Amino acid sequence: MWTKNNIPDQSGKTIIVTGANAGIGYETALALYEAGAHVILTCRDQHKADETLNKITEHTGKGSLETGILDLSSLASVKQFAEGFLQTHQQLDVLISNAGVMIPPASKTTEGWELQFGVNFIGHFALTGLLYPLIKSTPNSRIVTVSSMAYVRGAINFDNLKSEKDYDAMREYGQSKLADIYLSLELQRRIEATGDNVLSIAAQPGANKTELSRHMDTDAFAAAVERVGGLMDPWQGALPSLYAAVEPEAKGGVLYGPDQDGGYRGYPAEAVLLPHALDEAVAKKLWDFAEEVTGVSFPA
Ligand SMILES: NC(=O)c1ccc[n+]([C@@H]2O[C@H](COP(=O)([O-])OP(=O)(O)OC[C@H]3O[C@@H](n4cnc5c(N)ncnc54)[C@H](O)[C@@H]3O)[C@@H](O)[C@H]2O)c1
């Protein structure tokens, strides 16, 4: 059984966790700090970032912490964070793209994208690309993109990415999380073509008790919890991301999640992806689209 006790010593590693102030991101950052990593906690505002840093340092850890301000709903914020990071750091061993938003009331990013597509996918795409030169120059580095089983009902509606036609909150969430899988798998294919020593891995946490469900009404939430047979704690939801980030046996181009039987046995297993998530033509189309709208091109 793989648990956070299996995390190898992370001393000397530099790891970014986006959305580190809450839920799964917080538990991910805490475990990596305990294991000795230098963890960059990215949050939208300095107050929350400082609170998180203070809370984590109350635990016994071998690592060190710093904060970074990053709002994934604004490309200017993504660029400012990435440029600052590149100027002040010589290595980036792991980027964990964890931050996310689920079924908010209809809203848009600064650039006009539907909020979930913009934050969960576009923002992380740009962040990954801008940091890629440093990731690539760090030996044995990894990029972990946090998706969700919500990808199952997702599809990329290329003609409605700004929700100009209609808005269906859960449909757009599924779209954004499918886009995260395409990002992760297509990146691994492209990395393999370049020969860079980087792994791109997707993780999905299962169903966990976090603030992600804040926009769900009580009845819908209760029904969803019943459907999935109960919720796990956020530290359990962090295990697939942690496995992808640090486990020597983890493979690129794979989605790791909790056991597929729905039970939690502490082992992040390789998920069997549905065929639409493996559609390389759509993944490539989405990649080209994301490069065009963000102006960020990588990995070559
Ligand atoms: N909780 C679950 O059951 C579950 C299931 C599947 C996938 N996930 C995924 O796990 C990840 C973490 O979710 P969680 O459950 O911990 O939720 P959470 O709401 O507790 O935490 C989300 C984090 O993302 C940050 N965030 C939101 N919008 C942001 C923005 N514009 N810019 C920067 N940061 C932003 C929040 O500040 C917070 O730190 C998400 O990607 C989510 O889609 C969660």
TrEMBL record:
Amino-acid biosynthesis recorded as keyword: no
Domain of life: Bacteria
Gene3D superfamilies documented for this protein: NAD(P)-binding Rossmann-like Domain (3.40.50.720)
Coiled coil location: none
Record keywords: Oxidoreductase
PROSITE patterns, alphabetized: ADH_SHORT
Protein name: Oxidoreductase
NCBIfam families, alphabetized: PRK06197.1
Manganese as UniProt keyword: no
